[in-house]
Design goal:
single chain; alpha+beta; Dna Ligase, domain 1; 6 helices; 4 strands
Amino acid sequence: MSPTIKAIFNTVFPVICWLFCAINSSKLAYKKNRDTQTWFLLGLFFGIVALAIIYFLKPLKNLKKNTQRISTKPLINHFTVLKNDNNYWYYLDKERKQIGPMSLEKLYDFYLKEKISNYTYVWNDTMDNWKKLTEISSLSKILKKSTS
């Protein structure tokens, strides 16, 4: 073998091996939900050792999907509470004057616009007496934690 070919082989072959280890470490990291850039660099610097480590690591659980499921579920439940209620609702204003009838959606809209509060008395035909908004269990989940 000529000295130039030997010199090229001695410089190019290690670079190809490093890139092979880096690329395969990155691919394995992607399959195991790990940071691909970090494992590319680890494969580049540590070669076959990094490749062996990532191969035997367990995959990480994908946490983003779980949190997304948890956060969208209550929104769907709140929306169905508002949509499924077919009763006519009334509320007492500050002068104790009865306002209504209105849908639960409209009542909730008044609540969001702060025309009524958690302590406003409300009533519909399925209730015996007037109750504060916070005392109604089906509505307590969609109400703000503290309003006056």
